[in-house]
Amino acid sequence: MSNKTLRVKVWRGRTSGDLVSYDVPRFDNQTVLDVVMYIQRNLQPDLAFRYACRVGMCGSCAMSVNGKARWTCRTHVSKVAVDEELEIAPLSNLPVIKDLATNMEQFFDKWAEAKGQFKGERTRSDDFSKVSPQSERRTSADAGIECIGCGVCYSSCDVVTWRPDYLGPAAMNRAWTLMNDERDVEGVERLRAVAGDAGCHSCHTQGSCTERCPKQLSPTAGIAGLKRLVMKAAIEGKL
Ligand code: SF4
Ligand code: SF4
Ligand code: FES
Question: Signal peptide span per the entry (predicted)?
Fold first, then answer.
């Protein structure tokens, strides 16, 4: 058993609630998710939070840790604790279901609003599309494809805070990825979807989303790419 202790404050409640303090044994290589699980298993069995894979793939474990959104299963306590203290809260910019669990519905609805679904035109009797791995569009699609839908960028974006209808960085990163997919046929409709007031032109490009993304993606670059495509399509009279 460890003889060091971590002092942890955890949000309990919904829109209204309070930070509640717990003492948790401190271990080497302990992650923030380990801390939350210790509290639920040993101190507060009704603590609500979400996780699944514990290896940085599912995107479900994001929380606010000492004021910054992070994936908790891959965040070591040693990197974020200040004087052996942690404050853990639900992600910002999303409604709280209970304690550390947020409702991600609006986050994923915005992926759909930004036309974040692939739409092809080939049938199963057609040959495979041949996309050169070296092509510029394929390289751009690759740069954004590893999004795990964790919501860290969305929670870190102050434009989402100011105007809740803003599509946000993850949905537009997805739209940009699909705009670079040579097999997709819904480009013009997608550009219309991201061109409005709540779309790419509301991004101030300061890059909190890119700074915080745990997968080192750059939604900021993708949104800048969408701005260029929207401008080009408008000049060509396609929008
Ligand atoms: S760069 Fe744009 S999308 Fe990213 S956090 Fe800032 S306003 Fe939000
Ligand atoms: S872009 Fe990055 S921070 Fe945003 S949802 Fe995807 S993986 Fe998470
Ligand atoms: S639990 Fe799956 S990404 Fe953290």
Answer: none
